[in-house]
């Protein structure tokens, strides 16, 4: 009885937090210009499949502090670029029984332009794969090397480097054809309530975006900035790691990074940002 009383009290507190928080619009006129040259749009018309639930879609960059936004505008100051620099070394490193490197098959890393923009996507066997799956498939099947952990430092380095090649290119995930079934499952998960607090992704990022909850300015949860350097973690944070953190915050039991469920959710969340460009390595609080 005491446990149930505490549970309902927690739910009530959470509901009060979301309903009474102050509202703060995204920055009205900030422009994301990298190195004074590359203009990256941070606002766009919402994709049709959203059915008008959002009047406009906004990059999470618009919801951050002035200081955080400035970090992303300068590659020298952006701490995420250190991971991409290490990724350049790993790109050239021959490994495994085949003694092959990424460069041996793919050439210069610039050949990866556009890859991040279409991820996740259905592979030739009809499976929905994230970028990490493709990387590990190359390592195990072509290089004869060990697979990297989803959140390992080598994986963060190389996914950061590859993502950077698509910076400024529009998000272009496919949600029809073979991808449709996965997209529908991801959409269902987005609106499913999790944990003791019984919160869904939509409760925060669709119903309450723009509000301040404690010290956090809730964004629309767009994924075009991932992988992102999160100041709170002092590291690159992949999208699935953020998914897991969100479910943890609902006091629920999370799926594993790289799981089928998270790949499907990744596809749906990515599709909500159709119209926004890839930000490469973004910076968030």
UniProtKB/TrEMBL annotation:
<dbReference type="InterPro" id="IPR009056">
    <property type="entry name" value="Cyt_c-like_dom"/>
</dbReference>
<protein>
    <recommendedName>
        <fullName>SoxAX cytochrome complex subunit A</fullName>
        <ecNumber>2.8.5.2</ecNumber>
    </recommendedName>
</protein>
<feature type="binding site" description="covalent">
    <location>
        <position position="105"/>
    </location>
    <ligand>
        <name>heme c 1</name>
    </ligand>
</feature>
<keyword id="KW-0349">Heme</keyword>
<keyword id="KW-0249">Electron transport</keyword>
<keyword id="KW-0408">Iron</keyword>
<keyword id="KW-0479">Metal-binding</keyword>
<dbReference type="GO" id="GO:0019417">
    <property type="term" value="P:sulfur oxidation"/>
</dbReference>
<feature type="signal peptide">
    <location>
        <begin position="1"/>
        <end position="24"/>
    </location>
</feature>
<keyword id="KW-0574">Periplasm</keyword>
<dbReference type="GO" id="GO:0009055">
    <property type="term" value="F:electron transfer activity"/>
</dbReference>
<keyword id="KW-0808">Transferase</keyword>
<dbReference type="GO" id="GO:0046872">
    <property type="term" value="F:metal ion binding"/>
</dbReference>
<feature type="binding site" description="axial binding residue">
    <location>
        <position position="106"/>
    </location>
    <ligand>
        <name>heme c 1</name>
    </ligand>
</feature>
<dbReference type="GO" id="GO:0020037">
    <property type="term" value="F:heme binding"/>
</dbReference>
<feature type="binding site" description="covalent">
    <location>
        <position position="102"/>
    </location>
    <ligand>
        <name>heme c 1</name>
    </ligand>
</feature>
<feature type="binding site" description="covalent">
    <location>
        <position position="201"/>
    </location>
    <ligand>
        <name>heme c 2</name>
    </ligand>
</feature>
<dbReference type="GO" id="GO:0042597">
    <property type="term" value="C:periplasmic space"/>
</dbReference>
<keyword id="KW-0732">Signal</keyword>
<feature type="binding site">
    <location>
        <position position="242"/>
    </location>
    <ligand>
        <name>substrate</name>
    </ligand>
</feature>
<keyword id="KW-0813">Transport</keyword>
<feature type="binding site" description="axial binding residue">
    <location>
        <position position="205"/>
    </location>
    <ligand>
        <name>heme c 2</name>
    </ligand>
</feature>
<comment type="similarity">
    <text>Belongs to the SoxA family.</text>
</comment>
<comment type="subunit">
    <text>Heterodimer of SoxA and SoxX.</text>
</comment>
<dbReference type="GO" id="GO:0016740">
    <property type="term" value="F:transferase activity"/>
</dbReference>
<feature type="binding site" description="axial binding residue">
    <location>
        <position position="138"/>
    </location>
    <ligand>
        <name>heme c 1</name>
    </ligand>
</feature>
<feature type="binding site" description="covalent">
    <location>
        <position position="204"/>
    </location>
    <ligand>
        <name>heme c 2</name>
    </ligand>
</feature>
<feature type="binding site" description="axial binding residue">
    <location>
        <position position="246"/>
    </location>
    <ligand>
        <name>heme c 2</name>
    </ligand>
</feature>
<feature type="active site" description="Cysteine persulfide intermediate">
    <location>
        <position position="246"/>
    </location>
</feature>
<dbReference type="GO" id="GO:0016669">
    <property type="term" value="F:oxidoreductase activity, acting on a sulfur group of donors, cytochrome as acceptor"/>
</dbReference>
<dbReference type="GO" id="GO:0070069">
    <property type="term" value="C:cytochrome complex"/>
</dbReference>
<feature type="domain" description="Cytochrome c">
    <location>
        <begin position="86"/>
        <end position="171"/>
    </location>
</feature>
<dbReference type="InterPro" id="IPR025710">
    <property type="entry name" value="SoxA"/>
</dbReference>
<dbReference type="Pfam" id="PF21342">
    <property type="entry name" value="SoxA-TsdA_cyt-c"/>
</dbReference>
<dbReference type="InterPro" id="IPR036909">
    <property type="entry name" value="Cyt_c-like_dom_sf"/>
</dbReference>
């Amino acid at each position: 009885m005491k446990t149930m009383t505490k549970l309902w009290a927690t739910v009530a507190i959470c509901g009060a937090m979301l309903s009474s928080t102050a509202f703060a619009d995204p920055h009205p006129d900030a422009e994301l210009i990298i190195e004074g040259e590359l203009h990256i749009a941070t606002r766009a018309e919402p994709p049709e499949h959203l059915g008008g639930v959002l009047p406009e879609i906004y990059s999470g960059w618009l919801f951050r502090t002035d200081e955080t936004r400035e970090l992303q505008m300068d590659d020298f100051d952006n701490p995420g670029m250190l991971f991409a620099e290490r990724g350049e070394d790993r790109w050239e490193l021959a490994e495994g029984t085949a003694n092959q490197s990424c460069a041996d098959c793919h050439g210069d890393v610039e050949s990866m332009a556009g890859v991040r923009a279409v991820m996740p996507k259905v592979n030739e066997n009809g499976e929905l794969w994230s970028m990490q799956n493709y990387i590990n498939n190359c390592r195990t099947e072509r290089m004869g090397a060990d697979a990297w952990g989803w959140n390992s430092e080598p994986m963060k380095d190389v996914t950061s480097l590859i993502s950077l090649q698509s910076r400024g290119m529009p998000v272009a995930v496919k949600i029809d054809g073979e991808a449709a079934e996965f997209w529908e499952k991801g959409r269902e998960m987005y609106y499913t309530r999790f944990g003791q607090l019984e919160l869904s992704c939509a409760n925060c990022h669709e119903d309450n975006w723009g509000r301040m909850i404690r010290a956090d300015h809730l964004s629309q949860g767009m994924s075009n900035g991932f992988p992102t350097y999160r100041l709170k973690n002092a590291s690159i944070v992949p999208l699935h790691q953020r998914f897991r953190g969100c479910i943890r915050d609902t006091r629920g039991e999370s799926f594993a990074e790289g799981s089928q469920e998270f790949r499907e959710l990744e596809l749906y969340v990515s599709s909500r940002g159709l119209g926004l460009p890839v930000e490469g390595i973004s910076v968030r609080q």
